[in-house]
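Person: At home tonight, work slowly through the protein below, taking as long as you need, and write a paragraph about the fold.
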Amino acid sequence: MEKTFVMIKPDGVRKGLVGEVIRRFEARGLNIEALKLIRLSRKEAEELYSIHRGKAFFGELVDFVLSGPVVIMVLSGKGAVNAVRKMMGATNPKDAEPGTIRGDFALEITENIVHGADSKESAKREMPIFFGDYLDT
């Protein structure tokens, strides 16, 4: 089974969408392997988004995910990375199809409800930032 990392961002938590987002993943047949409600540290946020370091939006993105609690999880299932990416929809909600999480619930590119690993390699890099203890067992 493939595993991937997903984070419900502060706007998703604020809007009360945690249950709906999780429901959609479970209804699709993905399994929750690990789940936490936390406030990210600056170090964790910067490590998560390190691939964007040096880009104009890096600081804004980090500040946003530090603005409130987030729900982080490891999901598993056949083709989990691609399944999650399709369910989330385009990064820019203006381009996201209706029926996707971002297409249904987001209006802005920064506040777009969810983050999901964009590849198997990204998932392998992102999961240990928050679930190293779980993944080591």
